[in-house]
Amino acid sequence: MVDVIASSPCVRDKESLFQAVLQRERTMTTGVGIGIAIPHAKTDACSDFVIAIGRKKGGLVYDSLDGGLVYLVIMIAGPASRYDTYLNIHAKVVLLMANAEFRQKLINAETTDEIYAMLKGK
């Protein structure tokens, strides 16, 4: 997923971003349960916020707090200096993913365009 995010012009240093994501994951798993993981990093390797969404319909093994499989991975990366914005984005993602019906629709979506349409404006 770092590769996907690093394709954004907002990412200045892919390796630094990768290391920041790894360091955050070492602190505590970002597999929050209910089939989702939200890996994230605050790093000066990013000039602005970038988000990528990965989906695995069959689930993947992730060191999730509830021990369950992860179906949706939402990676967030942004500049360390914009902590308030970072918290707001993270909170919005958590609130969206807390909605079981919405989460299931994302998992079952047929195309990336469908996923994008569901998330646009949220």
Key features?
23% strand, Mannitol-specific EII, Chain A, 122 residues, alpha/beta, single chain, globular, five-stranded mixed sheet, 5 helices
Explain the overall architecture.
The protein has 122 residues and is an alpha/beta fold. The chain has one domain (2-119): 3-Layer(aba) Sandwich (Mannitol-specific EII, Chain A). It is built from five helices and five strands. It has helices spanning 2-6, 14-27, 83-98, 100-108, 112-119, and strands spanning 31-33, 36-37, 40-42, 50-60, 70-78. Strands 1, 2, 3, 4 and 5 form a five-stranded mixed beta sheet that branches. A hairpin with a 2-residue loop joins strand 1 (31-33) and strand 2 (36-37). It is globular, with a radius of gyration of 14 Å. The chain starts with a helix and ends with a helix.
Oligomer: single chain
In helices, the fraction of residues equals: 40-55%
Largest sheet: 5 strands, mixed
Radius of gyration: 14 Å
| Large-scale geometry | globular
Structural domain count: 1
The CATH C-level class name: Alpha Beta
The H/E string reads HHEEEEEHHH
By DSSP (H or I, 4+ residues per run), the number of helices equals 5
CATH architecture: 3-Layer(aba) Sandwich
Q: Strand tally, please?
A: 5
Strand content: 15-25%
Uncertain residue segments: none
CATH fold category name: Mannitol-specific EII, Chain A
Mean pLDDT: 93
